[in-house]
Amino acid sequence: MSAIEVKTLPWGWYTDPAVLQLERERIFRRSWQYVGHLGDVPEPASFFATAVGDVPVVVVRDREDEVRAFLNVCRHRGSLVCEGSGRRETLQCPYHAWTYGLDGRLITAPRSKREGGIDESSLGLVPLRLDTWGPLLFVNPDPDAAPLENFLDGIPERIADAGIDLNALRFLQRSESELDCNWKVSAENFLECYHCPTAHPGFSAVMDVSVDSYLLETSAGRMTQHGPPRVEPKGAYDPTGEIERGQFHLLFPGTVVNVMPGRPNVSIGPIVPRGPEQTYRFLDYFVAEDADESWIEESLAFDAQVGAEDRVLIERVQAGMRAGLVDDGVLLPASEKLIAHFQALVVDALA
Ligand code: FES
Ligand SMILES: [Fe+2]
Q1: How far is the CA of 73 from the centre of ligand 1 (A)?
Q2: Ligand 1 centroid, distance to 274 Cα (angstroms)
Q3: Residue 102 and residue 94: Cα distance in Å, rounded?
Q4: To bridge 146 with a disulfide, which of 139, 150, 225, 256 should be the other Cys (CB 3.0-4.6 Å)?
Q5: Which ligand is closest in space to the CA of residue 112?
């Protein structure tokens, strides 16, 4: 065996606020991120507030039925304009009642007619790029970023080839989690199944996690794992059905797309840094219209079990890194090659 070791990133990068600040500026503010789906803005005048990395965003469906995204920051003195979700005819800032149309235009600023000094036409909400893949909504704060299609990098075709019509799925639920770890610890845990035999007995009883079946692929910003269920799956989840293989993708920096074998299904959501050692994640689950309730319950419970096991693992990693007495770690060249790819993308972005 070769003695050339592949080193991890310096562990200090997982606790240092200055590194996170750079990641926010150079990675998250320039990247596409999944934010929600068309069902979150079901009719004209519906909206929801969200964030891409640490960039506050509001998504609205305007009167002409166009779905738009804006920076959720008032042009007066910088307050967040919207919170939560619902229906609104205008977007009024709660601080001094500057009021924007659903197209982002500043309609009124109280007293501005009397006092002057405000050029309403140049003070609309800042529009952000929004694009869709079927019902799924993605936002990128960078006006010069490559198109969404590049970011998705063939995943829509893979999902279609697997026999899934994304537009025919129904939204099931959003599962949210707050994790005590750096966002990269969460992403890197997602990027290998080397830990599956040890740490996910339930998952490994259903999926074939052996080296020769569970395949790893990298492309520019896409890191993919895919594989079949076991020939004789045993466990709490029935993986038989139209969808024959699992696929698990990470789109750099943090959008996760999963398909489990079984009935047609997709789950998707972002990994978002909240602080150097805090991470927020959510996953939106979509499933075939005719999938039976017992299968749905089984599959959600199965995924929740894996998620609970992963939380323990990643928070232990963060605690170990935080100790600060070891500079870095090592990666297995094959089983952890997606992590090496991910870390190279981080290094490139920060260089
Ligand atoms: S900060 Fe929004 S109206 Fe003043
Ligand atoms: Fe895991």
Answers
A1: 9
A2: 25
A3: 16
A4: 150
A5: 1
| Atom nearest to 97 CA in ligand 1 | 3
Looking at the predicted structure, is the pLDDT value of residue 1 above 60?
no
Show the ligand 1 pocket: residues with CB < 6 angstroms: 74, 76-77, 79, 93, 95-96, 98
CA 74 to ligand 1: nearest atom:
2
Residue nearest to atom 1 of ligand 1 (CA): 77
| CA 113 to centroid of ligand 2, rounded, Å | 59
Q: Are 151 and 136 in contact (CB under 8 A)?
A: no
The helix (run of H) or strand (run of E) holding residue 314 is: helix 293-322
Taking only the tens place, the pLDDT of each residue in 20-69 is: 999 999 999 999 999 999 999 999 999 999 999 999 999 999 999 999 99
Which residues have a beta carbon within 5 Å of ligand 2, which is an ion?
310
> Is 2's pLDDT higher than 70?
no
- Using the predicted structure, report yes or no on whether residue 83 has a pLDDT greater than 90: yes
Please state, in angstroms and as integers, the Cα–Cα distance from residue 332 to each residue in 194, 203, 217, 218, 309, following that order: 9, 22, 15, 16, 22
Give me the mean pLDDT over the 77-90 stretch. Answer: 98
Centre of ligand 2 from the C-alpha of residue 306, in Å: 6
Q: How far is the CA of 74 from the centre of ligand 2 (A)?
A: 40
Q: Please, what is the Cα angle at 230 between 227 and 234, to 5 degrees?
A: 135
For the segment 142-162, the average pLDDT, to the nearest whole number, is: 97
Distance CA 184, CA 73 (A): 28
pLDDT single digits (tens) 202-214? 999 999 999 999 9
**Phi, psi of 17, rounded to the nearest 5 degrees:** -60, -30
Pairing of strands 246-251, 222-227: antiparallel
